[in-house]
RNA sequence: GCCCCCGUGGCGGAAUUGGUAGACGCGCGCGACUCAAAAUCGCGUUCCGCAAGGAGUGCCGGUUCGACCCCGGCCGGGGGCACCA
């Protein structure tokens, strides 16, 4: 019997409509089943979806469909992270309003997502630029302000003096503005901050409870929060200006205090500012430091520079021991007290500085074995390693740094030279942005009343639509009327805050809003939010490991503290998926390399080597490195082309095959074709046999050929269920391939009418299992096959099948036999055979006898149901 | 510069987390079907070697009966670094 090819173009829209009509993916509020909240990081509406989105949303969809089948009340919403810089860039470049551009992109991308057949509850959709959403965000801001979690202070920004604009770090290229090319300056502005440091200790400690997160993400967050125990002390300053006689310092290495050779303060330290007032040289130096920019990377990689203030710092242990006091460009005002003590022997940065300024290097400890002294590489062993302390708070001793740090702290405290202190590296979160396309900060500045919060009754503060981008700077600032407003307190003329919020604020609570997306009276319904949160499984890119996830953890706490819900953590399970990358192609053009889109490239095989040609002209071009898909390198594959050509199921299946989901995946046309062949193969086999199976009752067999089929099906079912639970999609795919290989011949026999009743029953059951396992990954194909088997209901509504325990265990197992750790033979034994029986059988094997000769074995290691190793 | 991760055949990857390295897929080779091609099906495919056998998980060293897996040191690639999202 021949069968028509599976036609996804016809089948996919049909099933998508069927699901929608049945409302299978909508989450009822009053459902008694256990809730399961699956969420993928919502996209920025950049224009079109890319393969990274396809991968991310396919993974989430498999989880959602699988958990739904497992009996959970699944919530799987989608929305748009819609504020941000690109919309303003589009406005400038193409004279289109940011809102218009954004909503047009959303429409396009929504249609693309719909074509993927995702099991999303679209009734919950919103965009963060919707007035309804940012109104509630303004309300949250006011609550946080009232609670002391929002405040204003001075802080630095990158300033482009030519464009007269604040620049984002990514807009600063090698110290210059990306458009103007002018050297970037830093400016101090009064800006709004969220007091995330109020939760520093809690955010750190609670990491231990996040069992459902990858260890690497927890480690990154722990390092970012940077909790450290150390010594707080003060230097007495000699020849310092009045009021600066004491200099507070925090050091994490009290054990190295006797190796100090200088002290240094940040260019923004109050003392440095004081000195700059009267000393032009100091002022000039501080200005140089500020030009480095605001990014940590720029500060760390800049040449270490210092300026000797002439002031001397008296060591706390000995008032006569004076250290020079420098202003240094690598000291940060934001961390600790903005001042450090330098110990060159045991810190590379301090050593570089000491060598540059000819300062002494005192070894505090030396390697316990060699006793080697420091020359041009600082000696920084792990704190758990034992070393010989030669110059510290006690006798010469061999001990770990950890022990010496504890002992030093105790000694300093006892002597009254300082005290123990816990310090965090985490800084407060600056949220002010001098931009138009963001959530307005609901504040009014009044001459007489000062900073006045907008009363909640006056919300929302809407963005004005009539803005222009032909002038530099923030359009809200030079809008003719928007900023002028009466003071909510005294009624006098006042002006609005024109800064908008960092877009990270928008994405810090959207997961909570999805629970009750249409609430108008408040950000979230506290009871519903508390019931649905935390998100059961959150899926997104590893690039968000620190900022987005940490800000969300802070927001959950802030919202709980201000009474919006009672939730500790936003995301119970976290999965970070890898990127979709593609090879790049380029050709030389006018002496420069020009990127070529893969669509214009033809690949040929030349003696086993891949060679690329420009399809149109036949010109040979270069195959470049494999990189993250980006428009600038033209290595982008449009998902629409794949879906139009092969169907959504093929695209989905390919995204789940082969590469482990946490790792990057390389896009290749060959891989897509492989996935598509599989889709067709399943249809050919199941669809072909369906006619002879539609009247057969599914029945597992335990004996004979039919038994082999049922065993394979149930073993696969067990494995795939475990794989889906762990998001191990590539392994599930491999298992299903194996099962299909096993089913191929029997299904052909059913098709040919040569299969007996037992075989037909087993095949019918195996097909149903196969279809249900495929359903989360290739849902349209699954429905088509299901229907062909004579079922009139939807796979999407079927409960997950249960495997039969007796079919998944084998009665005999094959043990590999090693001699000295190398596999030399095999031994078939009954499951549960006892140790001595196995040992006896192994020793009588020919290979073992030959290896032993006439000597007895030194040792025989039997690992039950695993392996046997004979040591000779 | 700092923090985190990754490295296995021609390619994507698997290995029950210290127990048979290379499952499954792609590619390639051979064969079947076909007038022919496509599609499909079957067999083979880590490397060296005719073979017996030997080598082998980025490199060097260590622990162990046994190491892709644990430890130390290097090399290469990626992510993040607080205003890209």
Automatic annotation (TrEMBL):
One CC-aspect GO term: cytosol
Catalysis performed (reactions): tRNA(Leu) + L-leucine + ATP = L-leucyl-tRNA(Leu) + AMP + diphosphate
Domain Aminoacyl-tRNA synthetase class Ia: 427-584, 627-667
CDD domains on file: Anticodon_Ia_Leu_BEm, LeuRS_core
Compartment(s) where it occurs, according to its Swiss-Prot or TrEMBL record: Cytoplasm
InterPro entries recorded: aa-tRNA-synth_I_CS, aa-tRNA-synth_Ia, Leu-tRNA-ligase, Leu_tRNA-synth_edit, M/V/L/I-tRNA-synth_anticd-bd, Methionyl/Leucyl_tRNA_Synth, Rossmann-like_a/b/a_fold, tRNAsynth_Ia_anticodon-bd
Protein keywords: Aminoacyl-tRNA synthetase, ATP-binding, Cytoplasm, Ligase, Nucleotide-binding, Protein biosynthesis
Chain ranges for the short sequence motif 'KMSKS' region as given in the UniProt record: 628-632
PROSITE patterns attached to this UniProt entry: AA_TRNA_LIGASE_I
GO BP field: leucyl-tRNA aminoacylation
UniProt enzyme class: ligase
EC number of the protein: 6.1.1.4
Ranges that cross the membrane: none
Residue ranges annotated for the Leucyl-tRNA synthetase editing domain, each copy included: 222-375
Pfam families: Anticodon_1, tRNA-synt_1, tRNA-synt_1_2, tRNA-synt_1g
Sequence ranges assigned to domain Methionyl/Leucyl tRNA synthetase in this UniProt record: 38-172
Ranges for domain Methionyl/Valyl/Leucyl/Isoleucyl-tRNA synthetase anticodon-binding: 709-834
Family of this protein: Belongs to the class-I aminoacyl-tRNA synthetase family.
PANTHER family in UniProt: LEUCINE--TRNA LIGASE, MITOCHONDRIAL, LEUCYL-TRNA SYNTHETASE
Protein name listed in UniProt: Leucine--tRNA ligase
Record organism: Pararhizobium mangrovi
Lineage of origin: Bacteria, Pseudomonadati, Pseudomonadota, Alphaproteobacteria, Hyphomicrobiales
